Amino acid sequence: MAAFEYVALDNDGKRRSGVISADSARSARKELRLRELMVLNVNPVAEKQAKSVILRGRISEKQRVLLVRQMSVLLKSGLAVEQALGACAGNENPVAVQKAVHTVRADVVEGARLSDAMALAPDAFPPLVRAVTSAGEMSGKLGDIMESLATYLERTYQLRQKVRAALIYPALLSVMALGMVVALMVVVVPRLVEQFDLFDAKLPLLTRIVIGLSNGVREYGLFILLLLAALSFLGARLLRQPAMRRSLDRAVLKLPLIGQQTRTVAAARFARVFATLSASGATALESLEGAKGAANNTVFADAADFIAERVREGGSFSAALSATGAFPPMMVHMVTSGEAGRDVPGMMNRAADFLDTEFETGSAALLAVAEPLIIVLMGGIVGLIVLSIMLPILQLNTLAMS
Questions:
Q1: How far is the CA of 333 from the CAs of 200, 275, 313, 327, 330, in angstroms?
Q2: For residues 78 and 48, what is the distance between their CA atoms, to the nearest angstrom?
Q3: How many CB atoms lie within 10 A of CB 331?
Q4: A biological process (GO) annotation for this entry (predicted)?
């Protein structure tokens, strides 16, 4: 079947658009008429065009989570993969999601595995989803694994939304404080300097420093912004290099506070995906491959490769986990207990629960500390600027009185 993009009117006269699968344009029009739609236009969706739309990142994280949940429900109900994809491509989903699903479905109809076909829509199905799906196909429990994956993605999305909501106030406070500092440096300080120039008196050191910074901001502000933009672009390009990304990930893990939180959330994701796959019948090596990309950190990806190599050689899973030095000691101890009790997936799940709770608690504490720190820091900067303005005035008053 081919994919066709259509524009039609419903019974209320509202304009509808979307994508539909059909053998031909005529069949597509017939199907739309059966849906009580008046067809205005039907055009085939070229495969390259569909890919380019998907690759522009128009599918949000929320839409991706809902899509995976929808697929898990359909697969658990007993539908074949092709039928489940066809149902996911319905009009209730955004056009970008419909195009992604149609692209995947077309490849599945031609005989491709679902996990391989998902590579045609990387924004809708990132590496983690593809790896878990591949493990589910190999274990023969695709529906169960997709349901666990959907639950994991939902929990991750909810946690990320909580953190974003908590960051709104500190971010807004920082922007307002920064705007105040820029306004003082660009507008207030230069006007006061004009008044100081009327007096032939030596200005205090702090005042001279602030005036120099003010002149620099006014004269080179645009250049500084362009330089920062260029450095940001160059940094983003460099981070695409594996060596640079690996160095950055290692450096982040060594940072105080932030590094600990990064390690906690990466280990929790690794443990959750490994437990999900292992409990669904995947082997240890298959579970490691699926969990490899879950942490979104090259240090943990390298650790997964190291553990897989040790396991192939017949080594202990917990010993290899400890030898990497990447995972929290608590997680290593729980996995050791799981090996002794022959319940590694269960202990991995408990470790993931504990680490998730630890991350939430730590994030709340960091954000609670960040707000007063921002206030004190920005208040100190504004206070120094005001002091630099007041010192010459006090000096002039002293000279006038003497």
A1: 73, 16, 22, 10, 5
A2: 32
A3: 25
A4: protein secretion by the type II secretion system
pLDDT for res 232: 87
Query: Which pLDDT band, with edges at 50, 70 and 90, does 26 fall under?
Result: confident
Check: CB of residue 176 under 8 Å from CB of residue 80: no
- All structural domains of the chain with their residue ranges: 2-44, 61-155, 159-401
Q: Highest-confidence range of 51-65, 249-263, 383-397, by mean pLDDT? A: 249-263
Q: 353 φ, ψ to 5°?
A: -60, -45
| Whole-number average pLDDT of the chain | 80
Q: Could you read off the pLDDT of 210-250 as tens digits, one per residue?
A: 888 888 878 887 888 899 889 888 888 887 888 888 888 88
**Alpha-carbon gap, residue 106 to 242, rounded angstroms:** 33
What's the confidence (pLDDT) of residue 401? Answer: 56
CATH code given to domain 2-44: 3.10.20
Query: Which region among 7-11, 103-107, 145-149, 371-375 has the lowest average model confidence (pLDDT)?
Result: 7-11
Main-chain phi, psi angles of 125, to 5 degrees: -130, 85
Q: Which of 100, 16, 19 is nearest to 57 (CA)?
A: 100
308-327 pLDDT, tens digit per residue, is: 888 888 888 888 888 988 88
Tokens representing 196 are: 């100081």
How many alpha carbons lie under 13 Å from residue 147 in its C-beta half-sphere? 12
HSE-CB at 39 with a 13 A cutoff on CA atoms is: 19
Residue recorded with tokens 């207990």: 337
Q: Which residues pair with residue 8 across a beta bridge?
A: 16, 39
**β-strands 2-9, 38-44 pairing:** antiparallel
CATH number of 61-155: 1.20.81.30
Report d(CA 292, CA 142) in Å as an integer.
19
Structure tokens at 269: 């994701």
Supply the pLDDT for residue 52.
39
The Cα angle at residue 357 between residues 356 and 361, in degrees rounded to 5: 120
Cα–Cα dist 248/297, whole Å: 10
Under 8 Å CB-to-CB from 69, ≥6 apart: which residues?
Answer: 150, 153, 154
pTM: 0.66
